[in-house]
Design brief:
Length: 329
């Protein structure tokens, strides 16, 4: 099976700026007398504005907030630290893509791919006391449900795939793409860690030159480390697309990636029940621990990823991962 990191990926930077969100209507629009607006236009405006206001942010006991990212019509969420502006935490593309490989085939196909902010249809979000979710139909007659649940120490991302076709898929997965921002952003991977039996190690510890090389030589890149997959023998691979892939020499013992805040007081850590490898694109400081499963005709499959965001230490994060990952699907 080809590693998921080998699949073509698309990334669009989504900078949070409420002044340039999709609901930044010019003040002059509302200077027109109401009688000059047609009934249909008025209804459409009310519908759009009503949708923007319909779902309020979720908040846990520590003050961590989970809210829909309005600057992107395609599914994305913000995880915001207590008392901080929306850009301080993580922007989560939910998901970045859904990819599958049909039984008997070698090539994979994207059943869904997140696009640039200007493209796509806003999902019909639903909210409960602790969760935000939506559903949609994907290519191949796959029905998809995505749910984000705010918990005491972070956010659990839940994906359900229902196969309404006669096709069988040997592999299917949804890529949760948390892009750490503000105090967590770590472009040189100086505060991003993985775990081994002998303790934590910086994800990029085997590339010390990264700390002094010009950014245009360091970026763009992906830094990967195996969990269940064998560690690749080629440590550094420069591909035709201009992206350099760094492979750490030994496999980790926990399917997690953790990043400390700049002041060292907060931890953001992504983990799954299991995965082939964990990796990051440091330009976005994203954390990938994406699990995969198989999906037969007429069957349903569930995958989950959790992102811990809490005030504490790396050891606290490890304790939480070991206590919780067995409860993930």
């Amino acid at each position: 099976m080809s590693p998921r990191c080998l699949l073509p990926r698309r990334s669009w930077r989504l900078e949070h700026n409420q002044c340039h969100g999709p609901f930044n209507f010019s003040r002059h629009l509302f200077l027109f007398p109401v009688r000059k607006l047609s009934c249909n236009v008025a209804i459409a405006l009310c519908s759009i504005l009503g949708h923007a206001q319909a779902l309020s942010p979720l908040q846990n006991a520590s003050g961590l907030r989970l809210l829909i990212s309005d600057e992107n019509p395609q599914p994305s969420l913000r995880i915001v630290l207590p008392g901080r502006p929306p850009a301080d935490g993580a922007l989560v593309i939910f998901p970045e893509h859904v990819t599958a490989r049909m039984h008997g085939r070698v090539e994979v196909e994207h059943l869904y791919m997140s696009g640039p902010p200007a493209e796509g249809t806003r999902p019909a979000w639903r909210e409960s006391e602790h969760s935000i979710e939506y559903e949609k139909d994907l290519k191949g007659d796959i029905h998809f449900l995505a749910r984000a649940t705010l918990e005491d120490d972070g956010v659990r991302f839940h994906y359900e795939f229902t196969n309404r076709s006669s096709k069988s898929y040997d592999m299917i997965y949804a890529v949760t793409d948390p892009r750490l921002t503000g105090t967590f952003h770590d472009v040189r991977l100086e505060r991003t860690y993985v775990h081994y039996k002998d303790g934590f190690d910086l994800l990029a510890s085997e590339t010390p030159a990264r700390l002094s090389m010009p950014l245009n030589q360091w970026l763009p890149l992906r830094y990967l480390v195996s969990y269940t997959w064998s560690a690749p023998s080629q440590r550094v691979e420069r591909r035709e697309d201009g992206i350099t892939y760094y492979n750490k020499s030994r496999a980790v013992d926990e399917p997690m990636v953790a990043t400390l805040s700049t002041d060292g007081k907060w931890v953001a850590a992504s983990f799954a029940r299991t995965t082939g490898n964990v990796w990051s694109n440091p330009d976005l400081t994203c954390q990938h621990v994406d699990p995969e499963t198989w999906l037969g005709p007429g069957q349903k499959a569930v995958l989950e990823v959790k992102i811990l965001v809490f005030r504490g230490t790396l050891d606290d994060a490890l304790e939480k991962v070991r206590a919780q990952r067995g409860h993930l699907n």
